[in-house]
């Protein structure tokens, strides 16, 4: 007499269950909450910083903790691009920072430091540097358009007074001509410089966000650059403040009711600090859905289809029985 099919099914299902300690109801809730926190884009609190009074052309050196979401994307231990911390596992930056082959093991992300070259003896800097698990470039990215990428960290970032996430929202039109928008980075101070001079401190500059109609007028003659809705222009029409080489990927942020929101990502420009040539930034709000969807999908657990495949195979079992 053969083994009943229901018993065979039970054995197969039990064989697919991974052994381990049963998870209590409290542990399950805690795990679910952690996953939601890791993947939710607008996790609260965000956009807070310490009340500190104090590549950026025409800016000044910043103070540690003033821009706690600022990230330094480092390749082979050297600063290459800026970025911004969205939550415990995700960093937003520019796609053009990854034009070459993406070797994940060569990338790290540094948080909470004022200098782009922390000392080897700086233990705190060592523990606030995170390995990269994945780099996801926007599939529509070109040299100028859709210039953004997401970096997933290999471990969860620990928040403190020097490390906090920035807020992001689906519309930032209210920040046009806002007097309280800032760009930050470790970029060079003028176009013909190769590197930021010692002590390599983060710099900040207050900028004005121009509406795209005005920006298109400024770039119209003699430039052939195209300003799309995917872009935000910011700076000063006289060229007194601007971003420059080394600032790429860094955040353009604005204050509203005491909270800071990321409006743009440092993308490109015609020169640095040139009159009637403001800096051009990726419009974050235009990509809000892509960012949030990608973070949620990447944070979802992968289903185990093995039990269902075995269940579907059961009707064929009698045919495979040896004579």
From TrEMBL:
<dbReference type="InterPro" id="IPR033116">
    <property type="entry name" value="TRYPSIN_SER"/>
</dbReference>
<dbReference type="InterPro" id="IPR001254">
    <property type="entry name" value="Trypsin_dom"/>
</dbReference>
<protein>
    <submittedName>
        <fullName>Serine protease 41</fullName>
    </submittedName>
</protein>
<feature type="signal peptide">
    <location>
        <begin position="1"/>
        <end position="22"/>
    </location>
</feature>
<keyword id="KW-0732">Signal</keyword>
<feature type="domain" description="Peptidase S1">
    <location>
        <begin position="56"/>
        <end position="296"/>
    </location>
</feature>
<keyword id="KW-1015">Disulfide bond</keyword>
<dbReference type="InterPro" id="IPR043504">
    <property type="entry name" value="Peptidase_S1_PA_chymotrypsin"/>
</dbReference>
<dbReference type="InterPro" id="IPR001314">
    <property type="entry name" value="Peptidase_S1A"/>
</dbReference>
<dbReference type="InterPro" id="IPR018114">
    <property type="entry name" value="TRYPSIN_HIS"/>
</dbReference>
<keyword id="KW-0720">Serine protease</keyword>
<keyword id="KW-0378">Hydrolase</keyword>
<dbReference type="GO" id="GO:0005886">
    <property type="term" value="C:plasma membrane"/>
</dbReference>
<dbReference type="GO" id="GO:0004252">
    <property type="term" value="F:serine-type endopeptidase activity"/>
</dbReference>
<dbReference type="Pfam" id="PF00089">
    <property type="entry name" value="Trypsin"/>
</dbReference>
<keyword id="KW-0645">Protease</keyword>
<dbReference type="GO" id="GO:0006508">
    <property type="term" value="P:proteolysis"/>
</dbReference>
<dbReference type="InterPro" id="IPR009003">
    <property type="entry name" value="Peptidase_S1_PA"/>
</dbReference>
């Amino acid at each position: 007499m053969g083994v009943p099919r229901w018993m065979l099914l039970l054995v197969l299902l039990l064989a697919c269950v991974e052994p381990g300690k049963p998870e209590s109801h409290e542990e399950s809730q805690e795990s679910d909450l952690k996953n939601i926190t890791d993947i939710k884009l607008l996790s609260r609190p965000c956009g807070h910083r310490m009340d500190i009074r104090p590549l950026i052309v025409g800016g000044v050196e910043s103070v540690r903790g003033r821009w706690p979401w600022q990230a330094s994307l480092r390749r082979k231990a050297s600063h290459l691009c800026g970025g911004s911390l969205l939550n415990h596992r995700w960093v937003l930056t520019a796609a053009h920072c990854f034009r070459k082959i993406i070797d994940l093991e060569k990338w790290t992300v540094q948080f909470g430091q004022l200098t782009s070259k922390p000392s080897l003896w700086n233990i705190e800097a060592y523990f606030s540097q995170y390995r990269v698990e994945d780099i996801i470039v926007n599939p529509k990215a070109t040299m100028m358009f859709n210039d953004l990428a997401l970096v997933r960290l290999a471990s969860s970032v620990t928040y403190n007074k020097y490390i906090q996430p920035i807020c992001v929202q689906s519309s930032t039109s209210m920040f046009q001509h806002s007097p309280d928008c800032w760009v930050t980075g470790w970029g060079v101070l003028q176009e013909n410089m190769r590197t930021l001079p010692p002590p390599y401190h983060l710099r900040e500059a207050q900028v004005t966000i121009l509406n795209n109609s005005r920006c298109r007028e400024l770039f119209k003659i003699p430039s052939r650059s195209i300003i799309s809705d995917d872009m935000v222009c910011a700076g000063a029409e006289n060229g007194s403040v601007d971003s420059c080489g080394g600032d790429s990927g860094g955040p353009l942020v604005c204050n509203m009711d005491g909270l800071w929101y990321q409006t743009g990502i440092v993308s490109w420009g015609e020169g640095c600090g040139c009159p009637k040539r403001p800096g051009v930034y990726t419009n974050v709000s235009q990509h809000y859905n892509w960012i949030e969807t990608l973070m949620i999908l990447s944070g979802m657990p992968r289903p185990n289809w093995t039990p269902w495949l075995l269940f579907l195979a059961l009707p064929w079992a009698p045919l495979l029985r040896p004579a």
